Amino acid sequence: MGRLGPLKWIALIAIVALLTYEYLGKRSGPAVGEAAPDFTVPTWGQGEFTLSEHKGKIIVLDFWATWCPPCKASLPALQRVYRKHQGEQDLLIASVNTDRVEVQQKGVPQFMQQRRYDFPVLFDQGMRISQTYNVKSIPTMVVVGRDGAVRAVQVGLPSTSVDGIEQHLEQWITEARAAEPPAM
Questions:
Q1: Given the DSSP bridges, would you call strands 91-97 and 48-50 parallel, antiparallel or unpaired?
Q2: Structure pTM?
Q3: Which residues does residue 141 pair with via DSSP β-bridges, in sequence order?
Q4: DSSP 3-state assignment of 64?
Q5: Which domains does the chain have, with CATH numbers?
Q6: In angstroms, rounded to a whole number, what is the distance separating the alpha carbons of residues 62 and 108?
Q7: Which of 96, 151, 158, 163 has the most CB atoms in a 10 Å sphere around its CB?
């Protein structure tokens, strides 16, 4: 094994510093407590979705892609929670798919149908929502409160089991409901 010269050491230190800054210095996801940025995007089979049209509701957004194993592991929990709360007027659960447009048009509907998922899918075309929400890794879940402020952000899986992920989702929904009484 050869020795590293001084320039190689400097380059190595610079690379380690850059990677550390990327990993620790930049947080993924929107800032908790700040207003959730508005957006309008196409959906799977439901026209367009505009976030601001749902103000007054608690909104759960799950950022995912069909190629992402941890994302696929979280979707069964999202489906359970969606089914449990389906029809509740104060809560909206939706996923934000970050695949390429071609996959969104053909692959995502097939993916959803094969797994019998029926929660809403928002298409993040061109990664506009991900950029606006500072989502740098998936899965990322964002909970928006009735007032339109971000209440919780989870980057990665909160548990290794579907039951554990479901419990976390339920906890975030309960906390968001407790934080703000519904508008009369």
A1: unpaired
A2: 0.81
A3: 62, 154
A4: strand
A5: 28-179 (3.40.30.10)
A6: 15
A7: 96
